[in-house]
Amino acid sequence: MNTLTITKRLWILICCAVVALLAVGFVGINAAHIAQDGIRNIREDSLVGISLLAAINNNYQRIRVNAYAHAASVNETEMAGIEQRILEFENTIKADFKRYEATLNSAEDRAMLEADRKGITNYLELFRAKVQPISRKGDTPASLALLRNELRPVAQAATDAIDKHIAYNDKSANDYAAKVTEAVSRATQIAIVAILAAATAIGLIAVLCWSCTVGLMRAVAEPLGAVGGAACLYTMAAICIAAARGRKGWRELARWRSMHPAYLWGCGLLFVVYEICLSVAVGLAHDRNQAMEIGLINYLWPSLTIVLAVLCGQQAARWWLWPGVLICLWGLARVLGGDSFSLPVMWSHVLGNPLAYGMGFAAALLWPTYSLLARRFGSGFNAVGLFVTWTAIALWLKWLMLGESQPMLWSWLTAGQVLLVGALTALGYSCWEHGIQHGKLALLAAASYFTPVLSALMASALLQVLPGWSFWQGVALVTLGSLVCWWATRTPAPV
Q1: Does the residue 3 lie in any domain?
Q2: Residue 6 lies inside a defined structural domain of this protein
Q3: Domain that holds residue 101
Q4: Is the pTM of this model over 0.90?
Q5: Residue 196, class by beta-carbon neighbours within 10 Å (0-12 exposed, 13-18 middle, 19+ buried)?
Q6: Is residue 411 domain-shared with residue 291, that is, in the same domain?
Q7: 202: in domain
Q8: Is the pLDDT at 347 greater than 80, yes or no?
Q9: What residues contact residue 349 under an 8 Å CB cut-off, 6+ apart?
Q10: pLDDT tens digit string along 134-145?
Q11: How far apart are CA 193 and CA 276, in angstroms?
Q12: Alpha helices in 225-287 (DSSP H)
């Protein structure tokens, strides 16, 4: 019942995370829509409006120039041509006014358009009513006087109205641009948060994947044998990783000569030995309780990684690192010593299956060593797919050379479990790589220290085993000690 309750809580947590990501996505989409609307308003309203008003003003000024030319002319034919040009300019202006009406977006904009139209109309009416007849009679001085005195204020009023309207459209464009800039900035921030959250969530998936492997390894080892089951698991994992990485993975492996020998061969050997030790140790466990104990031993690696990093000078730490290590060891002792916390009981656990427990301890030391060497000599390369392939080959060679008394008993359930472990292994490594490169590394590091708890819960559910109270005390202590070790590295140690 407790396991079921915890499982439900885990699902609730996952669902909450999904909802949070969807909410972030919704806000981002909304901001993107605001930006899109703003850009459309600038393009379809303000910029078009400014362009049309500029054309209207240009043609209006041509009308004024031709009005002066008409007043100065004494040739009837020339006057008729000028009047025809003025009419053409007027018709063009009317067409532009009609086109502008399609872009109107406010009452203020419409009022300004009417002011523009009225100003130009007033000028043309006065010109045709007063200036044109006098100019036709050949009275040039009187015509020019009318243009300079009576029509000039009217002409200037029309020009001012158009200039005011252009300024209005310019301000609208700037306002839209400011909204677009704000929306784009908000969308960018949200996108960064979403990407970071998604990458971190992807990295956390790796922790969940690894938490399932101990229980599934044991479930596969029971029908297929310790070595044969492990060989099948890593073969499937290699296939899944190759499929997941695709051509990118092959192109990277083709550059193997560029890899540091310490990474390619040293880390490769450590990876192979680690995976063999872990999988075979879980398979050699006498029962499922031992498998869970060995799994917990393996998950000493987060704290041991920090210890080795400090000893190798790659990491500074505060003094409370060492109490954190002692708490981890205390937790392990609680797991192995039972409710009585007896050293003889603890020792009897180890002596009862020294090979399995020894390989479990070896795995707990090998993975930190691999991690530190990969960090030191990896240079950005990712050869995990190659290392997993080597692990599968080594396990098959061991299975063929040494043989195994237990025959492989295949079933649809076993095949499904092999496929699931392979997929989880591939997914775990792929997600972890993505998370540490693009996500929030501090959160991922902290989450990895909860792997013992998750692994114990998953193994208990998958293997249908409910360990005693001392086991869960040990799990809690190992997790607490790992967190203390991690906290000791949050700030550099004083020099």
Answers
A1: no
A2: no
A3: 18-187
A4: no
A5: middle
A6: yes
A7: no
A8: no
A9: 290, 293, 336, 357
A10: 888 888 888 888
A11: 39
A12: 226-253, 261, 268-284
